[in-house]
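R.M. (postdoc): so does anyone remember the format we settled on? I'll just put the structure tokens first.
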């Protein structure tokens, strides 16, 4: 589900107070994990070279999404990440939008 409408009614008029897209819904979900994080930054990113980040992409863990966003931040293409992880390209491009903003 990409949009989550939250409707309010004013008489017969219906207005949208809140309409989330994937990016904001995803960030809200990450914040709700109670990991003491408010962004998609990989805490230990400074410890790893670009090559090591690519190797970490292949390792399935609860931190993998943070590794993916760090790879995007470092300029590793969504296509390269797809070839390693097989995460759907649609999600990778949406994560790229988050990282770039």
């Amino acid at each position: 589900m990409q949009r989550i409408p939250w409707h309010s009614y004013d008489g017969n008029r219906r207005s949208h107070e809140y309409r989330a897209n994937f990016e904001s819904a995803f960030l809200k979900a990450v914040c709700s994990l109670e990991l003491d994080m408010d962004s998609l930054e990989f805490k230990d990113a400074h410890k790893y070279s670009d090559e090591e980040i690519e190797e970490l992409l292949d390792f399935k863990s609860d931190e993998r999404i943070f590794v993916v966003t760090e790879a995007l931040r470092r300029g590793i293409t969504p296509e390269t990440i797809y070839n390693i992880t097989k995460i759907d390209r649609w999600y990778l491009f949406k994560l790229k939008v988050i990282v770039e903003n």
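R.M.: ...and that's the designed sequence above, right after the tokens. Also worth knowing: Helices lie at 22-31, 50-57, 64-73, 78-85, 89-100. The chain has one domain: 4-100.
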